[in-house]
Amino acid sequence: MNSLPSPSSSSDNSTPTNSRKRQRSQSMQSDASSSSTKRPQPQPPAVDEDIDAYMATQPDQDTPMFAVPLDRFKTVQSLKQQPMQPGQTWYLVAAEWLKRWTRATSGEIDKEGPLSEDELGPVDNASLLDSLGNLNADAVEGIDMDYVPEDVWKRFVEWYGPPTHVLQRKVILRAAHPVLELYPPRVCAMQLTTVPNPQSGDPAHLSVSAAASTKDLVSQLAQALVPDAAGPYRAWRVNVEARARFFPVASLTPSDGRLIIESDTRTAEEEGVMENDVFVVEFQKKSGKWLVSDDVEPGEVQEEKPLFGDAGFFESKKFDNRNTPSRYGPEEPPKKSFSPSLARTTPSREPGTVGLGNMGNTCFMNSALQCLVHTPELMEYFLSGVFTEELNPDNPLGMHGAIAQAFAVLVERLWSTDGGSTSSYTSSSSYTPRDFKMQLQRFAPQFSGYQQHDSQELVAFLLDGLHEDLNRVLKKPYVEKPDWEGGSVGQQLLDLASRSWEGYMKRNDSVIVDLFQGQYMSTLVCPECDKVSITFDPFMYLTLPLPISKKWTHDIYYVPWDLEKPHLKVPIEINNSASFRDVRALLGRWMDAPPENLLTMEVFSSKFWKYMDDHQICSEVQPNDIIVCFELPCLSPQSRRYLEQPLPFVLPVFLGNAPAPARLNNSARSAKDDFGYPFIVAIDYKQAKSLDGIYRAVAERLQRWTRHARDLFSWEAPTPGYDTPVVPLIHSGKDSIVEITAQDGVMSVTEQQVIPDEGDIVDETAAIFDDAPVVDGVNCRSSSPIKLGPKHDVFAIRLQMKLKEMGATSSSHSLPSSDFGWTKRLSFLADPTRPPLLHHDDGLICEFDENMKDYYFGSEANKWETALWDKWPEFVHPELEAARLAELGQSNRSVITLQDCLDEFTKEEQLGEDDLWYCPRCKKHQQATKSFDLWSTPDILVVHLKRFSNSRVLRDKIDAFVDFPIEDLDLGDMVGERKVRKNNGLEGEDDDEPLVYDLFGVDEHIGGLGGGHYRAYVLNHVTGKWYHFDDSFVTPAKATEAVNPNAYLLFYRRRTATHLGGKSYKKILEAKMRRQIQQMRMEAEQARELNNSMTLDSHQLPTPPSEPEYTQRAPMVTVESSPWQPDSSNLDENNYAPLEDTIDPLNPDAFPSLESDPPSFSEAQYDPVLMASHRFNFPDPSESSNGLSSPTSSNEASRDPDSDDEVWSSDNMQFSSHHTPSGSNSPAYTENSSPNPPIAKAGDAGQLEDISDLLDLETLGGDTGHGR
């Protein structure tokens, strides 16, 4: 036999013990005089003072003791309701302390028992702090902490003493809404000194509100270093690591320091103050002079310039040859100016290996950004400057272009090759995205502050924000969504999908749509009429459930309504996220009972502790919680149809001790008055009109819980010929004689003990009638006694009114029961139309005196020997046994694959009762079956592995390993569009190309929900190498290392032999062509100027008769391994083209338009793009007989003997347009350029290398960006 946990803690004889589990702070364990604040006692009056005035100051002795705590509770609750206002100060209070305070002041009694205010102590916020004394990053409002206004905080300090940890926060505005700044930037402060190498002391650390003015910021920095500092002082923000309290003035260089402009209107947020910023405070000397030169103007040192100045995107990329003037010495002489095309640059590090600085729990943002900026086509789009042409600042759904511009700056910085180190990847090669973070929280307040967030939520917001900021649709028209009309499945589906996508594109058209958005098909089927509804919707990322569900395993104590059936302990296993609605549905199926007739409650300390309704999540139940399910003969109050028809009164019944005579007139009850376990009674309308009917209904239910159930009723001997059903006698554990009074005398009944079979729920006895009387010659031995009714002296029923949820709400436990309700309600008994004596919010208390309680249930000391609430035979349903066997077999299966997750995503499921679908054919809501299918997939596929689950009090994560491919993710068999076309004999534009994806990024999460850490593995498409990004730390990695149990977001790129991006690709190509044409013009102009200047200093020489006329030739482009390479038959012997076939780079009309037809083969050989992609073979002057080349016109110049040989070397003179990862827009002649530039292979990862290899003009703009 299995038993329910003993209710010993609720016995009437129980006393508080030292075993009660409580967490107390050190202040609570200290001396009472220091742990609480006592109210001062009034002093005795002076002799001449009015005695009445003195008595008026004394507390009213008749006032109940709980009045003062209850008044405090009501006051605090009222003050907490006030709305937040910007500039206010609110305080954080640990939820654990606040919960104990609520118990002590409101009268709540939880599982730890009652609590008094004397046990509270000051506010204890220690649980909210980490090891460094900062607020925990994963603290959640309502679960870990709560907020109180300043008025409440002052009262807490007054009532309970000053706390150790004071966590005050300012209310600031975020997107015009007041929010509490939970995580203000924490900064470091050092003091400027003239000592060269100061070593003493640690830097000061302080938190600064983002809404604080810069004047207050400087003041707080100074006060942190020198308390009560009067000034004058000023502060510098420096880009150094804070290691000591003092900072030498000699180290404050122009490249490291920036003076803070003090203002009452400029905020710290506008100043760009971020987490972990370092400031140096300079105190003015007594002489009135500053340690730093007085000619320094505020904000002069290293003021960061925006990436795109007034000159525009491309102008900002030009070399700035002006020197920054020194603040501490004479200005350096200007350096020699070089043309951008002739400058020799050596990258100081590999492009795309810049880390991102953590500004305080911003790793979720850093990892997501690294994956996005390493998306090849997205990088090209922003570095090419195309985004500047597509900004949509007037889009009301966008961010006025701010997010797109901030992201462009970020892309430029991360792909820059300036600075850093090539030998190692450390935090020095990093960039802190302050501006991006400020723009992000400006438009998305949920990301404000420095609390940990979900990386997937950041990706979703950023992609949507970029889409709206760059939406090519300036005015969105109204578009109706097409409906499925049935018909031939194949063609109708294709038409519906096409119309749905076209309607979507009328309102949404951007680079994000071109690259990231696909389409899925949703199918709903009505279970009643088989109506099919099909819709097509776009998606930007694919959220895949893991085919693993964490099981919630618990024992449910099931109480059937039929008294002939035993109550059972039923173990169940159900999904961790299931609700108790699902639990009742499962139990109803197993126990053959209507789920709507089941009532689930948590029992604790002889009470109903929690009302387990549909909203209660199983995972929120603790392992030791006792859950009881009662079967009712009617609809349960937890059923949604409970009030649809007149029902019996379903009331809770509690067992309690009868009050002592001394407090018969006092209706108040205490917790120790209750014993045993409560149960549920259903009283019909007729029974509820009399006390006798109510008493009879309660006695019937009591039979289940006592071995002496027969003795709850009176019996009589049967009349002749009358036979009644046999009523078994319940044995009490020893032989006894029970006297039954009948009309015709006394019948002696002897109880003979019967040894029960193993597993029986109760011990039954056989009733043997000895000396049975003979009535009218009929032997009564063959008949059973007749039950007359309940004995009315066994227990008394008291009424408890206005209970909520069967008395399970916490506040109801402190409400006194009262029998005054009976008196008032019984006054209506004389009225024939009187209402019932009961209400639906009533509760009943069965009170037993000591003797009756011991007889029917026993005592706690004897382990309730005659009670049956500790006897629960276990019932294991065959369905559970089968599930356990199946789970045992699955434990040996291989790891989960990405394909398993895709299959789970497309699996058909039935809608829940909370998510019904309205069937237009049935004209009512139905629990339809629903399924999702991939219809078309995007060029860049973002896969979100759904690892996190979150309920009100439980945060959980699935850490299962999911195996996903690095290469060759084939989705061809899962994409519906291709399958439908294939089945109908149709062909799409790219159906002949396999739908295969390759991995290029993984965003991983380590730890649990609400905390943990995010990192990223990313493929650098420029170098072909994998790197691991851990905030500012970047290390080389292997692709296989990215496949691990922490993978959260997967970034895949479609493999193709052409190009990706649809319209965006065409625009990028046009922008590159314009840049190259512009560069060619600049190069030609520079060459002419150079030739003209050289001609002025040289002498004309006669032209040898045999010298070729180079003026009639154009330089020929050498193309290697290109499909556009010309046939040698079209060229003359000197490998030069006729002059009339050349293109003048200074004539814009000479270049073909992208809107025109493709060029002919011969024209294509001299396309400026091809010319820009390869080297020029200039004639070598040394080929002439005298080693000199004489000009035949004024445009030709002789070689300057003083010129640099390198400039004229044909091996070194190469024109390169290969993509420069730094984003430089100017092709350059470089010494390091290879004489044989590589040709981009078809399918290479996204880099737009040589435009000549991508110049298939017939396909420009023809790709929709979807792998269909």
Automatic annotation (TrEMBL):
EC number: 3.4.19.12
Biased amino acid composition, Low complexity: 1-18, 25-36, 1179-1194
Regions annotated as coiled coil: 1070-1097
Protein name, per record: ubiquitinyl hydrolase 1
Lineage: Eukaryota, Fungi, Dikarya, Basidiomycota, Agaricomycotina
Alphabetic keyword roster: Coiled coil, Hydrolase, Protease, Thiol protease, Ubl conjugation pathway
UniProt GO MF annotations: cysteine-type deubiquitinase activity
PANTHER family: UBIQUITIN CARBOXYL-TERMINAL HYDROLASE
Catalysed reaction equations from the record: Thiol-dependent hydrolysis of ester, thioester, amide, peptide and isopeptide bonds formed by the C-terminal Gly of ubiquitin (a 76-residue protein attached to proteins as an intracellular targeting signal)
The USP domain, residue ranges: 354-1055
Recorded family membership: Belongs to the peptidase C19 family.
Taxonomic superkingdom: Eukaryota
InterPro entries in UniProt: DUSP-like_sf, Papain-like_cys_pep_sf, Pept_C19_DUSP, Peptidase_C19_UCH, Ub_carboxyl-term_hydrolase, USP, USP_CS
A Gene Ontology biological process term: protein deubiquitination
Keyword Coiled coil part of the UniProt annotation: yes
Biological source species: Fistulina hepatica ATCC 64428
Keyword Cell wall biogenesis/degradation: no
Residue ranges annotated for the DUSP domain, each copy included: 67-172
Biased composition (Polar residues): 1119-1133, 1209-1234
Annotated spans, Disordered: 1-55, 315-351, 1118-1268
